[in-house]
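pasting input
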Amino acid sequence: MAAMARRRALLTGWGRTSPTAATVWRPRTAEEAASLLRAAAREPAAARRGAIARGLGRSYGDAAQCAGGAVLDCADLAPGYRLDPGRALVTASAGTSLAELMAHLLPRGFFLPVVPGTRHVTVGGAIGADIHGKNHHADSSFGAHVRALRILTPDGAHREASPGTDPELFWATVGGMGLTGVVTEATFSVVPVETSAMRVDIDRVPDLDAALALMSAHDADYPYSVCWVDLLARGPALGRGVLTRARHARAGELAPAARRDPLAYAPRAVAAAPPHVPPRLLDTWSVRAFNAAYYARAPRRGRGRIQQLSSFFHPLDAVRGWNRLYGPRGLVQYQFALPFGAEEELRRVVAALAAARAPSFLTVLKRLGPGTPAPLSFPIPGWTLALDLPAELPGLAALLHRLDERVLAAGGRIYLAKDSRARAAAVHAMYPRLEEWRALRSRVDPDGVLVSDLARRLEL
Amino acid sequence: MRNAVGAVDSVLVLGGRSEIGAAVAERLVRDGARRVALAARGAADSAGIAEVAARLRAAGASEVHPLEFDAARPETHAAVVEAAAELVGDLDAVVDAFGVLGDQAAFEADPAAAAAAATATYTGHVSAGLAVARRLREQGHGTLVVLSSVAGVRVRRANFVYGSAKAGLDGFAQGLGDALHGSGARVLLVRPGYVRTRMSAHVSAAPFPATPGQVADAVAEGLRTGAETVWVPRRLRLVFAGMRALPRPLWRRLPR
């Protein structure tokens, strides 16, 4: 058997901040991954640098980095997946990307239960971050649809966990940021669809209150709903945006030409960000211009528009390497959730961001539905706002710390998969079930072999 | 870990009594650092170290550890770095702040004292810097902040013992930074001009003086931006571009 490929490499998350060096291994089988974990566990405690699994590196911060240790690049990990169309179940290796699965499932009349803002994430990453999508208000997060996991724990054991058998390990792994084990395979449900198109309703919303009111009143009528927010609008236009709500289109709703192949699916990247982008390309002025144009271009009220699935769910995937547009210093994504009832606080946070002229061109507001039993899962019933900011923005650290305090005081939390800068104490307070999760982790990883830069920084 | 906005968790100050070192540590603590090791000769029962430690705790540090460190004993430096890592964990930022300005006339009268000062200002940093670099390389991240000086950018008649030692240190730090390229670890080279401290009180101020607080701000900014070299104040970079071009006969006549 050929030796496993490995290299010493500098890694960052999607935000391209805080690079650290690790030995990157590409295990091809669960057995190879097990031998890597056992080797990491054999290091003497004083010199142990640990190990963490990595998928496609779409976490914005340092969740899939392990400075000085071993990073298990899971792309080649026993690739494969199978669809059971009768039971609408898919079993996939953890390194399989959602893009690959969508290309396989859609022509067969199925779609994933939850997709995030990019299709370039792996099944393992989707579970580790317990990702959510535009249907969270109706369908919860990815973990809610998982029936069974195969998990490799640091003692080298292959374990099976499901909500019925070993629910503790199962729910600690869902949203557990890879710190309870290396997921090698998952079985989850998929949903039948008639077409690969979406039927979309669009509403321009003049301010934040209008957005919240519309989403509260009518989200239940749509499986998918999301609101883009112009974070630079102030005064009476504070929080204005474009609300997009949709469901999967039925075959009869397609244009006659498209009806011949209603499940056709061929997403493409139409452009790529240039390899080198000057600093400060995305500043207050360019983002203000973009936001104003985007808002003006949206229809005041559009109904029944048929849109390709990829342009509805994954418009950013059309620009390869869009994260490079933030320049050499990278970007910081800030995503928080606030419970229902904290709408006043949400408005104050949006006002604070608008007052700081935070140049975020991809600000997304979403209503969240029921969460999962996972102690570290991010979504709680309420509202979530996600924004991208250039890391070089002066005063960014202080601004985000102030927001953390507001979010914490209002009973909210930030999303670990997006974080690259929070302080440990704040995160501990935001996740009151952290101790419960730690107790489970110490059951499967008593020596702390699994560790990431995120876990070190936030002392998880 | 250094986070996306340049804040660190842990700091090791080599030369814990240095006013500039303490100012940098205090700034990093205000930005979020919680664990600090202050390394200096006789650190455990030094009133100076205790005073700095109290300042850092007041600024928000949860742990401040004194650590024995003698710049003149290079054979102990690797152990000092290991001891620091045991106390504060991964070394996110190491501030290399020790050195002796001394008095040029006294040095010219006492060559042995001049050599001892050069050891503190230069060769001590070679052993300490290499020991730190090895640790940072292993941990895959971390920044070594080296306090050089414009005195080493072009050495002057007025303080050439100190200046030549800083010139050595400056070159060493540049080379070490290049050696660490791609390792996750890096060197931030800081070139202050005249800084008002106890150490420099006996020397008349040069143009563009700075305070320890300004040096600390520049270090924090360098950590945030990932800069390789920062000048304090910033305009000295331009000033010294000109200084380096001055003809020797003119340079020689610069006031002491």
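fyi The two ends of chain A are 37 Å apart (CA to CA).
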